[in-house]
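Q: Structure tokens for this one, please.
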Amino acid sequence: MHSKIRSGLLAVILVSILSSATLLQENGAPVVQIIAPQGNMQFTWGQYVPFRIRVIDNEDGNSEYEEILSQEVIMTVHYFSDSLEVQENLNEGQSSHFDILSWMGASNCFTCHNAKAKLIGPSFLQIAERYAHQGDAVEYLSQKVTQGTTGTWGSQIMPAQPHLSSEGLKKAIQWILKNGSRQDFNYFTGLEGAFKTPAKIEGFEDRAICVFTAQYTDHGLENVPGSAKKGIDSIVLSRRQDH
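A: Here is the predicted structure, written as tokens:
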């Protein structure tokens, strides 16, 4: 009798210990590091700027060993004419872009679409220029993405994407229509490559500051919803003055 009681108590204690360990388990935030370009580098208009990003995450792996999905690493390039705007962007402005861009990366949108240049499908710049002033654009484009289409941009087929959440899709389309044609903002995916600075930006003739930011959102703990965390790194580049 006493032996059964002791066994029962031990089982309860063991379950309690395992439950506590599970509760104490926490997902660590990924470490994101911009290797290139170097901070404080100067740029000129129309210049190609090589970039390289390193990501290390305890759960997802290390980008050096090709364990990080490159399309889930998002970079934004944002140009400012005032240093006060730069600080505001570093403190608050980044999250509004990265939440949507991370969703699009995880939804494989960047497999067929680039920001400014045509890939398989039209660029987000082309989509914004065509539909930004159309009153029902969000509903119209949501339906096209969900059901698929052909003939809108030539003979290329847009495969149906019924698995995408309606809320996430509409937010992404709203973001594209608002930001797709901006001259002062661009974004990329991948761990390495190069971006080209604009030939010029109206109103930025005297001074320009570029904030280059990389972010990675990890996959979180298995079977623990809401445990994903973000890693982020930013550098500031200034435009070389013409002499």
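A few notes: The chain has five helices and eleven strands. Helices lie at 2-24, 83-106, 124-131, 137-147, 166-179.
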